[in-house]
């Protein structure tokens, strides 16, 4: 790379003569940054989109759904268990394999 001191006077003046008109112009306006304001988010929305909450949320929901399902169907399941126990006892007493 050639420095200014190494160039002859005429070569340096010719080289920098091309940029001289640019130095006489007014200062350049800074370009505006392409920044937009972010949308306002409620605290519940911010909490629900957190990865840890998204990952662990199904467990309380499944427990919350399992309790009413068990409460509604427990008598029917108990009846099915009683019937199957009676059928197994009948088969065992008859010599059949379970």
Summarize the structure.
Helix content is 62%, strand content 0%.
Strand content: under 5%
Nearest-angstrom radius of gyration?
42 Å
Number of strands: 0
- Uncertain runs are none
Sheet with the most strands?
none
Question: Would you tell me the structural class of the helices and strands?
Answer: mainly alpha
Q: Given the C-alpha coordinates, what overall shape results?
A: rod-shaped
Question: Helical segment tally?
Answer: 5
How many angstroms does the end-to-end distance come to?
95 Å
Give the helix proportion (percent range): 55-70%
Order of helices and strands: HHHHH
Average predicted local confidence, pLDDT = 82
What keyword list fits this structure?
single chain, 98 residues, mainly alpha, 5 helices
């Amino acid at each position: 790379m050639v420095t200014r001191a190494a160039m002859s006077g005429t070569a340096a003046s010719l080289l920098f003569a091309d940029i001289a008109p640019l130095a006489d112009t007014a200062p350049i306006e800074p370009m505006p940054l392409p920044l937009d304001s972010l949308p306002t988010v409620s605290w519940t929305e911010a909490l629900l989109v957190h990865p840890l909450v998204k990952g662990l949320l199904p467990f309380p929901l499944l427990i919350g759904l399992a309790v009413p399902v068990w409460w509604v169907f427990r008598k029917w399941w108990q009846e099915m268990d009683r019937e199957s126990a009676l059928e197994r006892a009948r088969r065992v007493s008859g010599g059949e394999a379970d």
